[in-house]
Design a protein that fits this description.
Distance between the termini: 53 Å
Helix content: 25-40%
Strand content: 15-25%
């Protein structure tokens, strides 16, 4: 049995199309953090099981969602993601084999409305297809959650469609959040920032995105993303430096 689980909080904009792309699953669960919009109505309209659970962090929420089903396999899909017919067939095929405990799924990221295949945004593998009784989320990773698997891992060929950041403002808002989290994680790991890191780290990140990951192949779009990601390395190390003081 395969259960597709979608974590939600006020996802009325994306949820309907997401659930429509998952109708092939044996079970669909919308695992909600007490939305105040029409998320519940949309979930029930599409025949999904609707469960509400208080949100602590992403890792804890996904771990609680794993316990909300008895399915053999769980496929986590975000509300702004879409499964394709090709991915459906591949998921059905690999879940017939008990030898692998988890599968990494590539994503096609649409950023500012453009499919972005360079600058580090593809294949963007996510460990989302899990043998339920052999997977657990690391409670020490509240963001960029980490799965602990009992068994081997595999990599799927076909991608989830991810309708990622729609606007530059949305991108900046979320990356600011991630940067603060990364700075705190570095601090807890005992890392320290030097003043030169405020210059060297952004430059290194820009080179990594634009040259190493070939962001230049996406033209001005790739240049803008590479510059933005370089800037947020500055935000990370500025925040870490301020925490030290």
């Amino acid at each position: 049995m395969l259960s597709c689980i979608v974590l939600t909080l006020n996802e009325q904009k994306h949820l309907g199309d997401c659930l429509a792309s998952l109708k092939w699953a044996d079970e669909v669960i919308v695992f909600d953090s007490f939305s105040t919009d029409n998320t519940e109505a949309i979930a029930r309209e599409h025949g999904a099981k609707f469960i509400q659970h208080k949100f602590e962090n992403y890792g804890a929420q996904r771990d609680a969602a794993l316990k909300a089903t008895q399915a053999d396999w769980v496929f986590f899909v975000d509300a702004d993601e879409r499964a394709t017919p090709e991915l459906e067939k591949e998921v059905r095929a690999v879940t017939a084999s008990p030898d692998v405990a988890g599968w990494w799924v590539p994503r096609h990221n649409y950023i500012f409305g453009k499919l972005t295949l360079h600058a580090g945004w593809y294949p963007d593998y996510q460990l989302r297809l899990l043998k339920r009784d052999r997977a657990q989320y690391d409670p020490t990773r509240p963001v960029h959650e980490l799965v602990k698997l009992e068994g081997t891992e595999g990599f799927l060929l076909y991608s989830l469609i991810h309708l990622n950041y729609e606007t530059v403002d949305e991108f900046i808002q979320k990356q600011n959040y991630y940067a603060r989290y990364d700075a705190e994680r570095l601090r807890l790991e005992g890392k320290r920032a030097k003043l030169q890191n405020l210059i060297t780290r952004p430059i290194q990140e820009f080179i990594r995105r634009f040259i190493t990951y070939q962001g230049w192949r996406d033209g001005l779009h790739g240049l803008r993303l590479s510059l933005l990601m370089g800037y947020f390395q500055f935000v990370v190390y500025r925040s870490l430096y301020e925490k030290q003081k």
